Each structure stands twice: as C-alpha cells, then as structure tokens.
C-alpha cells in the first residue's frame, strides 16, 4: 500500500491588481515604445504598478507611465488583461497571489524619458520590433 503524505497546509490567496501602459510615439517612419529597465538584472519591461485603493486600472496605467518613464500620455484603449499565480510574501506571511495585470495603449503627449523615478534603472524609447524582442522571455 502506498504511503500517504500528510496534506500541506494551503497558503492563503490574495488577489492583486496591477496596470501598465504601452506608451508609444511616432518618430519619422518609426514607432517607438517606452521601456524601463528594472531590478538587479536590468530586465526590460513595460511601466506598470499596483492599482491604488480608489484608483481605476486606466488611471494607474497613466500614472505609472508618468512616474516610471517620465511621460505624459493619452489613454487610447485597453490592450489586454493577463492573469497568473505566484507565491510571495505579504508582510511576514507566505501567500499565493492571484495577479491580474491590465495593459493599455497610451499615446505620448509630452515629457522626458530621463525624468523617470528612482525605482527605475533606465527608461528609453525603443523601436517597436526591438521592444518586442527585449520584452520576450526565454523559454
């Protein structure tokens, strides 16, 4: 008879909502997207962050692009909603996060990419095809 393993205690589940933006501009014949470099590994990503209480995902996307990339933008459309799970800490407790991330298409109106906040290593305009390559994860 196979030995039964005791059930592991289930981690509590915490819903988490983030929002971000694909901020773009047209420069001559090129379409450029604002990307940020983040973390010790300098991973390139789209600006995004947690939706604050009382804030809509749309407002969060515009705010995060302003804070993390230094840009003022106009919201055009929702692009996607991504859902995934991960395990992390909430305070001193291990939890399973059920994460939802909304992404919006944002048209650049003003600002300077050099005016990004302290959490970001670097922000830069990247041609859209190169941006897709920088954002892809190795499988």
Overall structural class, as computed from helix and strand content, comes to alpha+beta
What's the CATH topology label?
A: Nucleoside Triphosphate Pyrophosphohydrolase
- Report the CATH architecture: Alpha-Beta Complex
User: What is the overall pLDDT average?
Assistant: 92
| N-end to C-end Cα span | 39 Å
Assembly status = single chain
Description:
This protein is α+β, with helices and mostly antiparallel strands. It has a single domain (18-134), classed as Nucleoside Triphosphate Pyrophosphohydrolase. The protein is built from 2 helices and 7 strands; from the N terminus they run E-E-E-E-H-E-E-E-H. It has helices at 57-69, 128-135, and strands spanning 13-27, 30-38, 43-45, 48-50, 71-90, 93-111, 122-127. Strands 1, 2, 3, 4, 5, 6 and 7 form a 7-stranded mixed β-sheet that branches. The N and C termini lie far apart (39 Å). The relative contact order is 0.28. The mean pLDDT is 92.
Short description:
By secondary structure, the chain is of the alpha+beta class.
Label this structure with key terms.
single chain, 139 residues, alpha+beta, Nucleoside Triphosphate Pyrophosphohydrolase, elongated
Map the helices and strands.
Layout: E1 13-27, E2 30-38, E3 43-45, E4 48-50, H1 57-69, E5 71-90, E6 93-111, E7 122-127, H2 128-135
Parallel strand pairs: 1-6
Antiparallel strand pairs: 1-2, 1-4, 2-3, 2-7, 5-6
